[in-house]
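explain this:
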Amino acid sequence: MGSRRGQSRRQSRLRRLLLPVAPALLAVGFAVASLAGGGAPAAATPAAPPAYGALEGPAEPTGLTLVDPHSGGPSPTGGPTWPASPPPSTGGSWPVTSSIRRLKPATSGLQAWIARSAAGGVCVMLYDGQRVEGVAAVDMSCSTPEGFGGGASIEVSEIPGMPGRVIEAGVVPDGVTAMRIPLADGSSTTQTVSGNAWARSGSEPPAPGSEPTAITGG
């Protein structure tokens, strides 16, 4: 069928950082209103929605071969494939085909894509270069609509032909320059973000229950 779901590690630190700030901002707003004689506070300027420059790029060839999962025909022998239509029971958490844009991960041997999710989030798609049962399957992970600003990430392990190899990849909004990833051995690794994308390939798995941390600036 050309696709498979890896273990999702959706990056949500940017969203969580907003939560502790909200009560303080509400308190400040109340104090200002009181000093002004109880008048209604001025309406806050809405924050600009997160942007992904890679999603706004021109529709160029993606390198994905679209296939009909119900055709029953032989699988293409070339590069990675992708279903032309979503499988049943995706709940809308599936890349919108027309929005798929190719990324340029810094890690050699990987191909990656970004797309909008039909449910309203953002998706990352990853091909590790290894065919499974004759199919060049693509892994994918999509965020929830609420997680659009936090990006999406994916972890793939137990890869045929690559024993002990762990691959992670993700997409993050404009302005994020690097991702710090805690590893199971207590160390961490920092991966550069380029064109909204980051990736790593190594032998050490990520720390259980951890999430990559976004780094901005510098």
